[in-house]
Amino acid sequence: MSLVLDPAAQDLLFREARTANTFTSEPVTEEQVQAIYDLVKYGPTAFNQTPLRITLVRSAEARERLVQHMAEGNKAKTATAPLVAILSADNEFHEELPALFPAFPQAKDVFFAERAAREGSATLNAALQAAYFIVGVRAAGLAAGPMTGFDHEGVRKEFLDDDHTPLMVVNIGKPGPDAWYPRSPRLAYEDVVTTV
């Protein structure tokens, strides 16, 4: 059985897409980021909680502050990418639930009154949204360079607050020269899927 999605789109989103390590200087516009968000916001999360928050790092001053918190191997590409996004989980997402999940507005208090429950759910669901975001970047014809190699606490203190947990930093732009490392192997279907 073949997929309904056009093979070229499959390649753009998955088969040919990889983490970019270099970028051209072509800017990423606010309109492009808005279009990406307007597409990926429809991805499902539990209770429609949508805890992902996106901090766009555009100014040179903010970029310098971010680069100091990146792992050594991630500094140069973060310093030169046209746009960098810090993706974080909002641990106070539950405050939006009455509007976002009107079918059961009490979910805010029934399931998420305790901070520990919110943090676990926010991390899982924001990570799911981060994956949608990466696919959305690809759908816009851009390359994404997601990274978890950074000082998470340093980034939280520098750019966020105690209610937000940084998940990843994503470099975004048109791929530059030698942007791709060779494709790494993937597990085979039979190594992943079990039928019971």
Largest sheet: 4 strands, antiparallel
Question: Helical proportion?
Answer: 40-55%
N-to-C series of helices and strands: HHEHHEHHHEHEH
Give the overall average pLDDT. 96
Q: Give the termini distance in whole angstroms.
A: 22 Å
Number of strands: 4
How many helical stretches? 9
Provide structural commentary:
- The model has no long low-confidence stretch (mean pLDDT 96).
- The protein is built from 9 helices and 4 strands; from the N terminus they run ααβααβαααβαβα.
- α1 packs across α7 (115-139).
- It is 42% helix and 15% strand.
- The protein has 196 residues and is α+β, with helices and mostly antiparallel strands.
- Strands 1-2-4-3 form a 4-stranded antiparallel beta sheet.
- The chain is globular.
In short, what is this structure?
This protein has about 200 residues and is an alpha+beta fold. It is built from nine helices and four strands, in the order ααβααβαααβαβα.
Topology:
Blueprint: H1 7-15, H2 30-40, E1 52-57, H3 60-67, H4 72-80, E2 83-90, H5 97-100, H6 107-110, H7 115-139, E3 143-147, H8 152-159, E4 164-173, H9 189-192
Antiparallel strand pairs: 1-2, 2-4, 3-4
Helix pairs in contact: 1-7, 2-7, 3-4
